[in-house]
Here is the input.
Amino acid sequence: MDEAKVEKALRVAREAARRAGEIQRQRLRQGHRVEHKGTFNLVTEVDRLCEEAILEILRAEFPGVPVLAEESRPDTRAEGPLWVVDPLDGTTNYAHGYPMFCCAIALVEGGRPLAGAVYEPLRDEMFSARRGGGATLNGAPIRVSRTAELSNALLATGFPYDRHQQPETNLDRFCALTLLTRGVRRGGSAAMDLCLTACGRLDGYWEIRLRPWDVTAGALIVEEAGGRVTDVAGRPYDYSGASTLATNGLLHEILLAALAQPAPHGRCFG
Ligand code: IPD
Ligand code: CA
Ligand code: CA
Here is the structure.
């Protein structure tokens, strides 16, 4: 895809994310139907309303480009361009009125994101990036933090919806890093955790068992803000969300080592 088209895609991604954010803001206090997708996994009518509004904009501006969106989930394995959409990231927060949620939209080609936008409606913050073009927050360039020591670091993580069913819960790593850092936040929105890392409010973030729509836009924004993104074992990032470690770069190797060494049982559960 040529430069001009990627630039247009970024503009359209921002427009669609902002539209979804407006819906989220308007509907927050009005009450909305909540359904269960699984024991802990919720979906609200606002997730669906946002997705419909986004798809209408993307299809009008880029007819024929397929869309992988969380709630409609067409089975899309496009070789060419593909939109990847999380209409509402942080649904559990949204359903409880906890103020941490956003909309995330990325354009991917050949498995690599070219453009991404994440909009947080309550603070009116638009994070976005174009591959090779840097990352911005409300139009101003952003950079990752300069924190180089774990003891000075503020991190974030999350826990998968199927944590009650799978042996790997991430609790051991959460415990280990809580003992080594200023703190580990569980914000409840992967896309926001990535953007907060990109703009230096967090120094790093990791999570397992996410999906492409959770991470693709945010991972590009971290990379374009000068950060580094791999899986939690240090392998090249594939944007699947299966395993994600995003840092300011300075902390990357240190965090890889710490994540590989969960805290001794007694320090966590003693
Ligand atoms: C969730 C959020 C959360 C993460 C979950 C994700 P959703 O996305 O990003 O922070 O821990 O596992 O699935 O369901 O709110 O779009
Ligand atoms: Ca999500
Ligand atoms: Ca979602």
